[in-house]
Amino acid sequence: MDILPHQVIRMVQFGMKERLLNSKTIWLCASCETCTARCPNDVDLAKVMDVLRQMAINSGEPLGDSRVPFFHSAFLSSVRKRGRIYELEMIAKYKLKNREFKKDIKLGIMMFLKGKLKLLSPKIKGKKEIKDIFSQVKKGVIG
To answer: Which pTM was predicted?
Structure first.
């Protein structure tokens, strides 16, 4: 990360929009919510990062890395379809779009062998509600 989480919040407070939207940090955040859970000031940093990513995409400005929109699209597509992230599907969609098929193969194999990548998509409750949220966002009801 080129900007630490507490610095992101400070930069938001100071209106440093351009620097934030051009940072690598907003794209490296995995939205795991660890920082949100640990924040002593109850700041939902994961939500802030989500908003900053969307602002960067909506700005129309070129992003620091041309692969960013591909990853963002693959991530949201997986959540929209399954109600949560399914890593193998997301990686496949990302690799098809950016055409970097051989890159990260060793890492992928290691993650699979350690049980970090599952062959089957996890089942969840509430998929319909998540699809409804995406539908409302598309219609402009939310956001």
So the answer is: 0.58
